[in-house]
Amino acid sequence: MSAYRTTLRRAGTVAALATAGVLAAAGVASAHVTVHPESYAKGATDGVLTFRVPNEEDKASTTKVQVYLPTDHPVLGVLVTPQNGWTAKVTTSKLKTPVKTDDGTITDAVSEITWTGGKIGAGQYEDFNVAFGQLPDDTDQLAFKTLQTYSDGDVVRWIEQTTAGDDEPENPAPVLKLTAKESEGGDETPAASASTAATSTKAGTTASSSSSDSTARGLGVAGLIVGVLGLAAGAFAIVRSRTPRS
C-alpha cells in the first residue's frame, strides 16, 4: 500500500505540474501589446487602429506608453483620440522619400506617439485609439515598436519582429498585416473596406480577445490531457509493481 500511494502521488504531481505549465504559458502568451484589427487592405483610408496595452506586473502600474510608427512606409493623416487621464504627445519626422497623394506631396509623417499621466493597474488593460487618413500600399505589414514603462522604472520593449518559420519572440512588436487591394469588380473598394473595419474596430477587438481565450482554453485542455496521461502512466507502474507478487 505504501508503494501504491507513493506511485500515485508521483503521478498526480507530474500531472499537476504539466497542467500548471501549460496554463502559465497560455497566460504569458495573452499579455502582449497588440494592435486591432489585425489587418487592413493596402492603401486603406479613413480607419482606426487600436493599441491594447495590458499590465503584466502585480506590484507596479503602467505609467507611460510609446508607440513608434514606421517612416519607411509611413501612415498618413494620423490623429489621436483623447484618452481620459492620459496626455498624448505626437512627434513628426521628415520622410526620406516623400509620398505623393491626390492632395499633394507629403514630406512629414507621425513617427511616435507617447501617452503619459495615466495609470494601468495590475490585472487591467487600456485601449489607445489612433485614426489614420491612409495606409501605405507598398508593404505587406507594419510593425509598431512599443515601449511600456512601469511605475517602478522597469521598461518592457515590445520591439522584436517574428521571422517566418521561427517561434514567436518573447517581446513581439504589434504587427498590422496589409492585405491585397480589392479589384474594381470586387465586392468592396479599399476605402469601403477600411470604413467597414473602422466602424467594427470594437467588434474586431472582441473577436481577437475571444480567439485568445479559445487558444488559452485549448492549451488548458492539452494540459489536462497530459495530466491524464501522467495518471495512466502511474497506474501502469502500479500494475507492474504488483504483478510479481500476484
UniProtKB/TrEMBL annotation:
<feature type="transmembrane region" description="Helical">
    <location>
        <begin position="218"/>
        <end position="239"/>
    </location>
</feature>
<keyword id="KW-0812">Transmembrane</keyword>
<feature type="domain" description="YncI copper-binding">
    <location>
        <begin position="32"/>
        <end position="178"/>
    </location>
</feature>
<dbReference type="InterPro" id="IPR038507">
    <property type="entry name" value="YcnI-like_sf"/>
</dbReference>
<dbReference type="Pfam" id="PF07987">
    <property type="entry name" value="DUF1775"/>
</dbReference>
<keyword id="KW-0732">Signal</keyword>
<feature type="region of interest" description="Disordered">
    <location>
        <begin position="182"/>
        <end position="216"/>
    </location>
</feature>
<feature type="compositionally biased region" description="Low complexity">
    <location>
        <begin position="189"/>
        <end position="216"/>
    </location>
</feature>
<keyword id="KW-1133">Transmembrane helix</keyword>
<keyword id="KW-0472">Membrane</keyword>
<protein>
    <submittedName>
        <fullName>YcnI family protein</fullName>
    </submittedName>
</protein>
<feature type="signal peptide">
    <location>
        <begin position="1"/>
        <end position="31"/>
    </location>
</feature>
<dbReference type="InterPro" id="IPR012533">
    <property type="entry name" value="YcnI-copper_dom"/>
</dbReference>
